[in-house]
Amino acid sequence: MRNAPSSVEQGRCPADFDFFDENTLNCPYRFYEVLQEQAPVYHLPDTNIYMVTRHADIKTLLKDTATFSNNFTEQLKGPEPSPDVTAIYARAWQPVDTLITADPPRHKTYRTLVNKVFNQKRVDAMEDYMKRIVHELIDGFIERGECDFISEFTTPLPVYVIADQLGVPRKDLRDFKRWSDSFARRLSQMATPDEQIEDAENIVAFQFYFAEMCEQRRNDPRDDMITDLVTTTIEDPDTGETRPLNMEELQSLLQQLMVAGNETTTSAITGGMVSLIQNPEQLHALTLDPAGIPQAVEEILRMESPSAGLWRVVKKETEIHGVSIPEGSLLMLRYHAANRDRALFDAPNELNIERANANDHIAFGQGIHFCPGAMLARKEMHVAFTALLSRMTHFRIDESKSDLTYWPNIVLRGLKSLHIQFDQRVD
Q1: CA nearest 286: which of 349, 240, 352?
Q2: Which structural domains are found in the chain, ordered by start?
């Protein structure tokens, strides 16, 4: 179930929901509405986590980095890891704070660097290259009239794009995807003990792979992002000295570019296709007028919010909406809820590709931590939907193979599977 009717009038309260339960994660819309109406700052029972769900509140809190810190590196480790997991991570480089877990002024050093790598000119120049990838992928399944949409289209598209930009050979993309999935599952905070060991092994393998690639690019520079990163210099955020990035910093940046560059885009395109199929009039309108696709992309981003929420660490005791929050607590800024806030969006659980304020969404965050890959994601989505609608019609979900459930993850939101059927367009 992807959309839900209003539930506040049904007399429900926040305690009726378990945020960590898979059923709630699959269909959280009633929970969000109850929270926004009754408890916009909600202390999740038996935790030190306070969830914020209103759009206006989240935008305000994102500006106060002194009180609400991005430095949640320790939280990424989850509960106390087992000795086996700790021993695996000890074999490689330890995490440092660069982009997502860095506060000002340290954050600016790395954000300025990544902005140079992910600039508008570079992304615009990639459009024809993206089109070639998209049409090659479609060529692989269009004659069958059906496909596993995630494995055959929405996974390889962003993986090819970010891997090509980093300089990863196509022969290594299966490993690349496996490593990325492990980073994403680590973010979920819901991995089993065996999965934690598997993820640790994959993350360490990633580190050694990219350490070798970084050394290769230092000796043999190429036109790719890794070369850009290893040949640049920064002003050390602690000493002010000019120096190259060290290996810990390179590993941190590459991890974030890899996960942000493919997992979220896969989820956005997948969820967008489901929403359009479930709203055939709007899908037909886009087919007739592809000029509406950029606006539809914003509405899809609002609806899907693949980065469903992010953490902040409370640096000093504070109060929000009368709720006292102790120092050291965690805030879960729930972007997915904010993007369905009735105070800003009319009928927020309904797709409306002509929604005038769709781009008020905060699917990419806001402020200094606004996602540096937003331009790339939007471009991939635009190219993907344009190609799909130009070559296919009469899209259907194969319900025998698609239960439309989501991976259990409290940070990232993505469907487990989507099989679709379609007809070729004959124009």
Answers
A1: 352
A2: 1-69+310-358 (3.30.43.20), 75-307+363-392 (1.10.630.10)
